[in-house]
Design a protein that fits this description.
The chain is an all-alpha fold. The chain contains two helices and no strands. The protein has a domain at about 40-70. It holds the Pfam family DivIVA.
Amino acid sequence: MKLLTPNDVRTCEISVHRLREGYDPDEVDEILDSVADTLDVLAKRASAFEKRASRLEGICREHGIGIDETK
């Protein structure tokens, strides 16, 4: 499964069918913008946690603490 990026969500296009009822394009755009903004925040948080975990792993190695021992 391919994970979506914020840009994937922002640039996706949804077909509008004029001959039958469908979703309000403005409402869909608003929701997609909210989803993309949420993905931005979560991606930044994940990156920060990964950097922090990497630093903590380095500290553990410096002190002779194996990563498996911290479970």
